[in-house]
Q: What sequence folds into this?
């Protein structure tokens, strides 16, 4: 590949990844600048993606960590182009919207403007991660970008960090998507162990149906389904509505949840080898469609309604993947485009309406078509797109869905119609609830930046209904990557009685029936929602989090309750490990007693003295006696070192022993006699357990010391080299030259430790203050 | 000889462990000093050769391993620093709690933690918590 072509492919990714640091830097310089800089980068990344895609795309494949077979393999194929264009394009509009929305949002909480910088940084980080995720062809690279999106979403959902609800929601999103992300990595490793590559295109050629593929595919699919908020891992999405509206709009249309179906599309060439996996997707998709659709009809809060709608809409996409085939693959891609445009517009509408009226519940809103005509029209177009009315891009998404479902069988066609009717019902409920009916309260003229992004998205939804060609071509290109074979679709209006049209008609009738019969079923739907809240997976999540918390508290309490248990928590496992080490090491004939000659007598006498002094230190009661006894043990040890041919150590040991003894005596002087006396008067009972523990500890020390010292000495050692090298370092004392020269850095570290300890001591003695 | 040194290492270590288990914090410090002494003796004894001091001019015959001596020196200095720091901590604990008995101090801290917890239950406002923390800090320092 020629360098310009490589540049062309990398440019969108580089621009998208640079956006976050650029906006952060601008924001640090002047908070006002973060939004325009970030928006400009999003626009640039979008243009670069479009241009590179128009020029034919391409791939970059270079070694990254060759020893682990990791490659930096990114490609701008159809699938990548689709999701990168969505992430940057929708991102651009959302950022324009945020530039007006965020100051208002921060204003409500009396927060400084500089907090906005953080917001733009994380939004753009998300955008960069999405572009990288879309382009990555290597499963490990994909996993990296995957986790980056989870981290960015954590910060975005908890943007209102003073709100405990938002923090809990962010943690839930992070745990649900982050824990399942590990499954993706495990799946990738399983595939690697079997086929020796992480590259998706290479794997697609290598894999064979079988239990291995089923296991790996299932793990990857669970990660993807959790990210796309599919039942039963859907509960984090409605909670994540605690985020500011632009975040919800972005995460739930073109970014976070889209990442899940993007991953499914990327690994679809592997998944479609296995019938079981496709059937699993089918079931999960249908369940999500049903659960999301029914719960969306019960919600009162605008954003909650939209969140359940997202669950159900991505259920469609997963359902389409499950149906498989040409129509399923292309349909899934097309569905994502249509849904992203419409859903983003609806979220932004909800944000604008709430900002204007201060209400976020359908029951408190109504009649806003008069004060907000432009917003009403634009979001009407978006709702129609979601509900799949003719003349919108949504009509074609349902046409493809019906086509794919019909090819599978009448039962699936029926399910598709039912799901689409639910969509129609809640789309109507959302739009009509806000804009029709009696007017509740006043809404002034909203800022242009809050309306025009909605108008742009609504316009795109309508444009797609009139001129579907560019969207269909993009979806086709993506579908070919998903399907791993040429695919083509011809979405168009046909004025005849073909089954797709009949199904659409049935959907409209059924949808209208659902809307008008609301009083009949609303109680039952609320009941379902209530039962789901009581026994649903969210409860399981909560109780497991609580359980883990309690478990960690219990361990924490047991471990750090007091000093003794703290010491025991370290020593006991260490002792067990040492014991195991001694047990498994072959010891036959290893232990040696060593020879004792006449010249060793002074040494033995010193050893006896040390033993007596230390044993005495355990029996003394008064502190001054204790100081004398333990320092005498130290001095005898120093003499012992001298006998062992270590005069340097002996000298230093004498100095150190003097120092520690003086410090000890000084401490005794600082503490009143009364306090010390109370300790000295403590009765010597209850010591049997302590003696026992000490004896065991000593036995361990004895086993380790004897075992180590018995090992025969090596023939040659570094010591000989060091001794030989000493004259070259212009020194006579080898130990000194080791400390000052050969291992000088160690000594520097040691000096640093002493300096830090001095600082610590001074601070402690002065009551927490250095000065 | 190996056996004799091993026994002494074990005795010093066991005495240190016994002292570490005491209630009296000063004894705990002495215990730690003893344990570090036993470690240093172990390092020196682990030298691969024994003989005259490794200082030039070196006579014919065995020379003591200089490497373990350098390590022992480092360990000695660090050990004494740790002892100094521990003594300062003990003094600090005496100042804040009026005692050098680990069990008494533990009881006081538990009582304080319970008080704080009950305070938190009634006043969940984070600013109040900070005030409570400050109050606790003030209480620690009867100057």
A:
């Amino acid at each position: 590949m020629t360098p310009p072509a490589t540049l062309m492919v990398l440019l969108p990714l580089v621009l998208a990844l640079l956006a976050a640091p650029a906006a952060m830097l601008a924001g640090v310089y002047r908070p006002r600048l973060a939004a325009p800089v970030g928006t400009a980068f999003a626009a640039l990344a979008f243009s670069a993606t479009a241009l590179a895609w128009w020029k034919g795309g391409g791939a970059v494949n270079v070694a990254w960590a060759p020893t682990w077979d990791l490659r930096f393999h990114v490609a701008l194929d159809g699938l990548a182009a689709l999701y990168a264009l969505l992430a940057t394009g929708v991102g651009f509009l959302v950022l324009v919207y945020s530039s007006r929305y965020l100051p208002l949002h921060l204003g409500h909480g009396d927060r400084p403007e500089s907090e906005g910088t953080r917001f733009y940084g994380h939004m753009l980080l998300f955008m960069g991660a999405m572009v990288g995720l879309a382009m990555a062809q290597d499963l490990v690279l994909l996993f990296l970008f995957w986790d980056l999106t989870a981290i960015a979403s954590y910060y975005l959902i908890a943007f209102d960090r003073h709100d405990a609800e938002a923090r809990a929601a962010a943690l839930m999103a992070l745990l649900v998507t982050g824990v399942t992300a590990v499954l993706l990595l495990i799946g990738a490793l399983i595939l690697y162990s079997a086929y020796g590559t992480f590259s998706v295109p290479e794997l697609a050629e290598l894999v064979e149906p079988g239990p291995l593929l089923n296991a790996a595919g299932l793990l990857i699919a669970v990660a993807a389904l959790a990210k796309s908020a599919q039942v039963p891992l859907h509960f984090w999405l409605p909670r994540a509505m605690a985020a500011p509206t632009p975040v919800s709009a972005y995460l739930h249309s073109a970014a976070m949840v889209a990442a899940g179906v993007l991953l499914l599309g990327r690994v679809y060439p592997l998944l479609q080898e296995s019938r079981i996996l496709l059937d699993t997707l089918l079931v999960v998709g249908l369940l999500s469609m049903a659960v999301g659709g029914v719960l969306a009809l019960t919600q009162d809060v605008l954003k909650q309604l939209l969140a359940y709608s997202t669950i159900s809409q991505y259920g469609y996409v997963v359902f389409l993947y499950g149906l498989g085939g040409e129509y399923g693959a292309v349909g899934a891609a097309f569905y994502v485009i249509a849904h992203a445009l419409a859903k983003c517009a609806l979220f932004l509408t909800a944000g604008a309406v709430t900002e204007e009226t201060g209400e976020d519940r359908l029951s408190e809103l109504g009649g806003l078509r008069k004060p907000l005509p432009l917003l009403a029209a634009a979001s009407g177009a978006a709702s129609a797109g979601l509900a799949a009315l003719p003349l919108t891009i949504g009509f074609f998404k349902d046409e493809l869905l019906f086509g794919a479902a019909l090819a599978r069988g009448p039962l699936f066609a029926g399910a598709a119609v039912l799901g689409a009717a639910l969509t129609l019902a809640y789309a109507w409920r959302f739009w009509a609830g806000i804009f029709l009916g009696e007017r509740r309260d006043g809404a002034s003229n909203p800022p242009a930046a809050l309306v025009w992004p909605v108008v742009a998205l609504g316009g795109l939804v309508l444009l797609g209904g009139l001129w579907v060609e560019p969207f269909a071509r993009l979806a086709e290109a993506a579908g070919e990557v998903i399907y791993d074979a040429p695919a083509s679709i011809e979405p168009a209006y046909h004025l005849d009685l073909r089954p797709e049209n009949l199904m659409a008609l049935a959907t409209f009738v059924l949808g209208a029936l659902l809307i008008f019969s609301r009083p009949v079923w609303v109680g039952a739907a609320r009941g379902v929602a209530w039962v789901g809240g009581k026994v649903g997976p969210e409860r399981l999540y909560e109780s497991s989090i609580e359980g883990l918390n309690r478990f960690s508290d219990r361990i924490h309490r047991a471990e750090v309750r007091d000093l003794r248990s703290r010491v025991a928590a370290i020593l006991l496992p260490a002792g067990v490990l040492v014991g195991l080490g001694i047990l498994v090491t072959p010891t036959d004939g290893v232990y040696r007693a060593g020879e004792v000659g006449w010249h060793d007598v002074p040494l033995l006498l010193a050893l006896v003295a040390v033993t007596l002094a230390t044993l005495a230190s355990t029996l003394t009661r008064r502190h001054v006696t204790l100081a004398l006894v333990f320092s005498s043990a130290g001095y005898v040890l120093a003499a012992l070192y001298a006998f062992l041919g270590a005069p340097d150590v002996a000298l230093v040991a004498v100095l150190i022993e003097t120092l520690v003894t003086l410090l000890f005596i000084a401490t005794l002087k600082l503490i009143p006699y009364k306090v010390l006396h109370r300790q000295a008067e403590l009765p010597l009972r209850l010591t049997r357990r302590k003696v026992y523990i000490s004896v065991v500890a000593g036995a361990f020390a004895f086993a380790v010391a004897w075992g180590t010292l018995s090992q025969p000495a090596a023939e040659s050692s570094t010591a000989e080299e060091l001794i030989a090298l000493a004259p070259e370092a212009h020194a006579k004392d080898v130990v000194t030259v080791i400390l000052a020269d050969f291992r000088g850095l160690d000594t520097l570290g040691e000096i640093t430790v002493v300096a830090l300890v001095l600082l610590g001591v001074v601070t402690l003695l002065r009551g927490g203050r250095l000065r | 000889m190996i056996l004799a040194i091993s026994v002494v290492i074990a005795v010093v270590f066991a005495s240190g462990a016994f002292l570490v288990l005491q209630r009296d914090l000063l004894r705990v410090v002495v215990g730690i000093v003893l344990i570090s002494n036993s470690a240093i003796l172990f390092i020196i004894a682990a030298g691969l050769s024994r003989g005259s001091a490794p200082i030039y001019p070196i006579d014919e015959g065995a020379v003591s391993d200089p490497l373990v001596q350098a390590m022992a020196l480092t360990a000695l200095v660090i050990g004494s620093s740790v002892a100094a720091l521990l003594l300062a901590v003990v003094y600090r604990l005496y100042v804040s709690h009026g005692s050098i008995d680990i069990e008494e101090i533990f009881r006081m801290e538990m009582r304080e933690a319970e008080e704080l917890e009950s305070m938190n239950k009634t006043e969940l406002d984070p600013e109040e918590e900070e005030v409570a923390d400050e109050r606790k800090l003030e209480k620690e320092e009867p100057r």
Residues 278-517 of chain A form one domain. The first helix of chain A runs from residue 3 to 29. The mean pLDDT of chain A is 86. The longest strand of chain A covers residues 59-65.
